[in-house]
Amino acid sequence: xxxxxxxxxxxxxxxxxxxxxxxxxxxxxxxxxxxxxxxxxxxxxxxxxxxxxxxxxxxxxxxxxxxxxxxxxxxxxxxxxxxxxxxxxxxxxxxxxxxxxxxxxxxxxxxxxxxxxxxxxxxxxxxxxxxxxxxxxxxxxxxxxxxxxxxxxxxxxxxxxxxxxxxxxxxxxxxxxxxxxx
Length: 182
What we know:
Blueprint: H1 11-29, H2 36-50, H3 52-57, H4 59-66, H5 75-94, H6 104-110, H7 114-134, H8 139-148, H9 152-173
Helix pairs in contact: 8-9
């Protein structure tokens, strides 16, 4: 059986693979796995290109220069691209996603408008990424890399993140929502 066509993989094997990937990131780039820094750097580069005078006065650039970490497009963007490509290829090979634009639960609660669904998903991701960058981290950075480093902040953050996700789901869908999951 082709492992790429499976609808689900062993969480133990996937966890081990992510651990090996994290070790590789530390060994080869001396950095932890994370995605939101790629977006932070991209926004900084756009600002620098669009308004260089303002960018020069920005404390963000001064801090990054002091840390010898100038904003740039680097391997983290390859991770971003890889996540999208990997998710797409996985869904196509496994046949796990029927291609519905509006999931049944969303349709029940908010209606069948795909634009509203995409807007809601984008806004939720944007809010989460903004919060992650304000906190100088990201969900994958804390929940994966921070756990591997035994960082106390990550061991606090991950349960709080999951608790907040469950609370948000209850706020959006209520108890009755579980009756409308495909």
